[in-house]
Amino acid sequence: MFFLEAIGGTIGLLIAMFFFRHKTSKTSFIVKFLLIFLIQVVLIYLKLTDKL
Predict the structure, then answer these.
(1) Which of 21, 38, 44, 50 is the least crowded, having the fewest Cβ atoms under 10 Å away?
(2) pLDDT digits (tens, 9 = 90+) for 1-31
(3) CB count, 10 Å around CB of 10?
């Protein structure tokens, strides 16, 4: 599931987490989700500022 998030499924995973209330109480899952999300935000920022 984290692989799918990492290749662009972040929004879908976030919606599914809250819609189905799946894994929302698992701290390790939330931490991994946020880490992947932050990496994606940094990569998008670097791409948009032509630093990547």
Answers:
(1) 50
(2) 677 777 778 888 888 888 887 667 788 888 8
(3) 16
